[in-house]
Write a structure and sequence with these properties.
Strand content: 15-25%
Order of helices and strands: EHEHEHEHEHEEHEHE
Shape: globular
Structural class: alpha/beta
Number of strands: 9
Oligomer: single chain
Helix content: 40-55%
CATH topology: Rossmann fold
CATH architecture: 3-Layer(aba) Sandwich
Length: 251
């Protein structure tokens, strides 16, 4: 991890789902560029461990706060913890998500449907509303929503997830209007990335997805960083309500 590119010195960045996979890579990228990073996920131990790692590696203050994205009252407590420690929030990255699978559409239970939409859509809505209101009052801020190619290329195996992420795309544009001009809201549409969850992928299904991807391979976790940093920083100062595809050219 290098410190090249736009700096975030003096900025406070909250990354949900920040203890593993793409979120962990994003958290490290912000910390490498001078930010005080808050990482959040459901497990307190993982949050505390990653925050300690960031402080040791980069020397900036970091904070780990456990939070379930589907529980609204925990989102308020998460933001209170950020402001109690740092007194500000300059960037929110809504990265946390779940994508449970199922054998057939009639096997999708009400509980699976509700959990999928709660984490991927309800939580980001509430957290963006709460954080955005404070950012707007403070005179500025950015939000980056992490969506999925499933939101624009829905598949029978991912329909609850696809619906939730399509809703997140809509929230991105809607919030960009609601919180303007002080706060900018943008999103990235991620394709397949090689993170720890890749161990559970079906080999045949993955091979088919790669045949339908221009670059013919899944992405590496570090390859999402440039897009997130760009949308979070001042180099994208005239960009809001945009969705940037980082999917290797998925058809």
């Amino acid at each position: 991890m290098t410190g090249r590119g736009e700096r975030f010195d003096g900025k406070v960045v909250l990354v949900t789902g920040g203890t593993r996979g793409l979120g962990r890579e994003m958290a490290g990228a912000f910390a490498a560029r001078g930010a005080s990073v808050v990482v959040s996920s459901r497990k307190a131990g993982a949050c505390e461990s990653v925050a300690a790692e960031l402080e040791r590696e980069f020397g900036n203050p970091a904070l780990g706060v456990p939070c379930h994205m589907g529980h609204w009252e925990e989102l308020e407590a998460l933001l209170d913890a950020v402001y109690d420690r740092f007194g500000a929030l300059h960037c929110l990255v809504n990265n946390a998500g779940i994508s449970p699978t199922y054998d057939r559409l009639t096997a999708v239970s009400e509980d699976l449907w509700d959990k999928t939409l709660a984490v991927n859509l309800k939580g980001p809505f509430r957290l963006t509303a709460l954080a955005g209101e404070r950012m707007k009052a403070a005179g500025g801020g950015t939000v980056v929503n992490v969506s999925s190619v499933a939101s624009i290329r829905p598949d029978a195996n991912w329909l609850p997830y696809s619906a939730a992420k399509a809703g997140l795309n809509a929230l991105t544009e809607g919030f960009s209007q609601a919180l303007a001009p002080e706060v900018r809201i943008n999103g990235i549409i991620c394709g397949a990335f090689m993170t720890d969850i890749a161990a559970d992928w079906d080999e045949d299904e993955t091979a088919e997805r790669m045949r339908n991807t221009a670059l013919r391979r899944p992405g590496r976790a570090e390859e999402v960083v440039g897009a997130v940093l760009h949308l979070a920083g001042e180099q994208s100062s005239y960009t809001t309500g945009a969705m940037l595809r980082v999917d290797g050219g998925r058809r």
